[in-house]
Fold each of these.
Amino acid sequence: MQLRYNYRVYPDAAQRESLARAFGCARVVFNDGLRARQEARAGDQRYVSDGDLSKQVITRAKLTPERAWLGGVSSVVLQQALADLNAAYRNLFASITGKRKGRTVAPPRFRSRKDSRQAIRFTANARFKVLDNGRLRLPKIGDLEVRWSRSLAAAPSSVTVIRDAAGRYFASFVVQSADEPLPHVEAEVGIDLGLTHFAVLSDGTKTTAPKFLRRASRKLRRLQQDLSRKQRGSNNRRKAAVKVARAHARVADTRRDWLHKRSTEIIRDNQAVYVEDLCVVGLGRTRLAKSVHDAGWARFTAMLEYKAARHGRTFARVDRFFPSTRMCSDCGHINDKMALDIRSWDCPCGSHHDRDVNAARNILAAGRADRLNDRGARVGPPAMVAPRGEAVIHPDAACSTRSVEGLSTF
């Protein structure tokens, strides 16, 4: 399995200038390649192949006075910029022809020096090296100071140097790591995700939503007001923009750290994990959009999925149309309608259910049934549309109504 390890790096003034030059050269090569292909299409010419494009915008461009300065950076950086462009076109063609699932991929766009994120990539051909003193040696840039929070699992195959909107620099290593199975445990868990409680487990455990963005909203509001008062194009406005970016970066870092710790704990304690396949994109169009994005469900489930694969655990998603909230986990009775403000309910069979715990138990049962049913037949109720009055979304939103059943008003 390929893993990515990110570390903070601290370049000095000369190294920051060299990195800025490398960012600019990679950006120019990417834009030149994109322009060449757009002009070829506008002139009804054949698609410019990867090899011909490399010769045109790198090899021959270096011999011209207008692009002679491309020789001041590593050629690997320029080749990787074109590799990103080629990958963008492959994704576009795969999306158009239906080979790539999901939403339609947009065509590649021109990169700008004003983009909040700048990045360059070095592969093994560039002969980058981690020195014995802990510094990272990059060709034509120098030895960068790295804050090693942990050791690399294996020798890296590539490293990407990133500058974010807050002006911070990171080195992102890609390594090939072997799976590390955890000891077998008998516990299995179903997870119902929500807003009041971030995650409710089938064993009754409830994790309160941390609401990182909400907690920092007061400071963010003040910084954004300071930014709006600054004159456009001034140095003070650029400084204020960096302060806003740093505040948002602090929120994102805190959320990511919390999600990593919680997902690791769940994977360590359970042999199988089942979650509902929420339509986060659709929920992001509702009145709960800010709270949905603050929760970070998509990243959390992605962490659970790759950590389960790495540590020998089972991970599965339950169909979003499965009526986990309205179904009794004891007798299987399905209610016709249940408003969001109903947090507990009684079944005709005599069972009393907490709304979220009952949903988590149903998700666990559905996940087990799908995994144990080796013939692939449906063992649960068929997909159905929830009553219109139960949905809290726009009728045209690309999301199932079940996706908001487990949510409570923020």
Note: The mean pLDDT is 88.
Amino acid sequence: MLGEYRIEGCRAAEIAASIEGAVGSGKLEPGQLLPPMRELAEQLGVNPNTVAAAYRTLRERGVIETAGRRGSRIRSKPATTGREYIRVEVPDGVRDVADGNPDRALLPGLAEAFAAAAERSDREPVMYGEAAVEPELARLARAELDADGVPDGPVVVTSGSLDAIERVLVSHLKPGDAVAVEDPGWGSLLDLVPALGLRVVSVGVDDEGPVPDDVRRALEAGARALIVTDRAQNPTGAAVSATRARALRSVLEEYPATLLIEDDHGHRIVDLPLHPLAGTTRHWVLVRSVAKAYGPDLRLAVLTGDPVTVDRVHGRQRLGPGWVSHLLQRAVVHLWTSGAVDAQVVAASYERRRDALIGALRKRGVTAYGRSGMNVWIPVPDETGAVARLLHAGWAVAPGARFRMSAPPGLRITVSPLTPGDIEPLADAVASAVGPGPARRYV
């Protein structure tokens, strides 16, 4: 059942740590069946209730799953084996188009912004008890949200999109609750949800966003939350269109108790308009990160939503880190107000590269997708083989396994590092690795 590995421990925490550590090190593999609780209790010389408590802890952490009489087993994608480890090692001389990073040349310099923020902080140091959100940042963020049709709501600041999403989920849900998530979708999010003890329900995606029928099925089956990427969806580049937004709102109106989370990390790098779903349900949030437009090390996101949800997020944050550094907030305000990033120029740059690659692949009989953002998604019949052949040809691409659950295989290519001279050689390599064939969908 477990091969040569022996679970150890006398207390529930020790047993759970023994199993979780083995999963993280690879000694226990996804899908492996665990001993029945009474059997393991007898082996360890402990009460069966102790093993039951250990298994319960592991379920809540997203490490194992239990299927009644069929027993407990390691999850197919346990939280302790993050998807970031499903990657290709890039040897010297191989071009890396897998990392998902923005183009360094399109990122602004930060020295001036932080110098200005530091100078102000010297004059006006932030002390305990002051407002968590810089007033000017809240004002600027709220003005842009208003312009995009996002309903009115208070603003809080978190340490990036994933931090915001985690705080929102735990503010409303309990272990065992189901969350509807895009598939293929953001690998870090697919790790986060089970790590919180929540169940992932797969929702298909096409060029216009989540498929309404899939969303309805997920909510009918009991999913309590829905996470939607509005634009620049990772990995497919999908963007919610006006037509799709109307269809999704129609579905959500039937389930007003759904916790709706919208991730608009594509803000300022995408020229497609936002079509928010916010306000359709009683509890909702919309999150905007600055990472893609200004740099991943700027760990800051703005969150707005219904007053109850925002208050819960703010209250829990106050008991933990307290606030996101005002030095960082003031630097972001400086970047916004100085025009350090021309959103139209950035969006056009990524669009040119996406369109050029997709067009070159189309000429070679390969179907690819990428309506917005910095990634192109290529459905393939043999993911592992295609990744290996491309690596041999000098290109490191991201395997689709990092981004999917039940969706068909695929590859993600980040266009950020591509130059005009790269397009044809890369398209040749992909066509050779994948082979022409009928148009493949990714749902």
Note: The chain is about 40% helix and 15% strand.
